[in-house]
Amino acid sequence: MSETTTTSTTSTSASSSTNISPPIQSFSSRRRASTNNSNSTSPTLNVDLINKLASQPVPIIMPPSYKPEAKYEKYVNQLVGKVIMSAALISKTPGPKLKNNLLAQKGILIKFNETIQIVDAIAKGKLHLELISISGTKYAITTVKERSFYGFNTNTNIGGGIILIILDNAILVALFPASVLIGEAVPFIENYVSNTIIT
To answer: pTM score, two decimals?
Structure first.
């Protein structure tokens, strides 16, 4: 009786041990399963979207210091000071709008028709025969040189004068106050133009 009981207990224990142990997978099997799962969830490329984005131009925003008009603004800003109270650069090839004609200005508000008048009068060689209007103020040209024009403000209550110099790609318009003599203003601006390059 004692031997039979021992055998039954051993058999029951073995059966229980077999039911608890999980099935053992080989390393290669687990790797294949992992690879299959990875392939099934990998994203697909949207070729149409990529082609659409590639065909659209991307705007290039240039920093202020690299904008084309920055060099003109720098040129004018350096000129204006104690001797020259205001200045502007006008394009030698006028366009249909003020922004096409006026490259830069400081301390002055030139109107569209005024830029056209200056460019047209210089092209026809008649600048000294006309009253030049700058912000509504009239100036008379009294001295004409190879590339320069000097004049005075017709409003004697305000005084001051005007200097225009023809540059390579623009016309420089500079105004000086009544407190500055023309004999001081002319050498100052001529020296500035000769030694300063628009870059």
So the answer is: 0.65
